[in-house]
Design a protein that fits this description.
By secondary structure, this protein is an all-alpha fold. It has five helices and two strands, in the order H-H-E-H-H-E-H.
């Protein structure tokens, strides 16, 4: 894993802006735009930026997103209306946000993982805010209990990523 000091600030900023552009394209563009733009952004990431073996982490994160958000949908947390769903669980646009987020982990967010409690707090705040904003823009209804549950999920995910990233960093030094 790259240390924050070894990654130029411009590269970290470009990685973060690429994710934000992907987020907007997915949420505002719907599933067809998400499939095309998400695949293009992921392909570009793998071709130009990805660390060796990073594809496994991104793939695992995509599956995790399908399971977690899909489970929350089945439990009544999301109402997607008449949108087409992947495996009956999620629209492509929401599912695509998971692998796109994973492209940040070893790049623009690498600095955050050194601070597990801060990572958990950032996840607990930014995760639900992302869902709230995305739901408003994509005309998705959220159950009242969903955002607090998302806060716990994203806090735990970011805490887990922090411990995983620190372990990876320790084995590569």
């Amino acid at each position: 894993m790259a240390s924050p000091s070894s990654m130029p600030v411009r590269a970290m900023l470009f990685n973060a802006l690429r994710f934000e552009a992907g987020w907007l394209l997915c949420v505002l563009g719907g599933s067809w735009i998400a499939a095309i733009s998400g695949a293009a952004l992921l392909g570009w990431h793998f071709w130009h930026w990805a660390k060796p073996g990073e594809w496994r982490f991104i793939g695992l994160f995509a599956l995790l997103g399908l399971a977690l958000d899909g489970g929350l949908h089945v439990a009544g947390g999301f109402d997607f209306g008449d949108q087409a769903l992947v495996a009956g669980l999620l629209p492509v646009w929401l599912w695509m946000l998971w692998p796109l987020f994973a492209t940040l982990v070893f790049h623009s967010l690498v600095w955050l993982w050194r601070y597990p409690l801060m990572a958990a707090a950032c996840g607990a705040i930014s995760g639900p805010l992302s869902y709230l904003g995305g739901a408003a823009l994509a005309n998705v209804s959220l159950a009242a209990w969903l955002l607090p549950v998302q806060a716990v999920i994203w806090a735990a995910l970011c805490l887990g990523i922090s411990y995983y990233a620190r372990r990876v960093a320790a084995t590569t030094q």
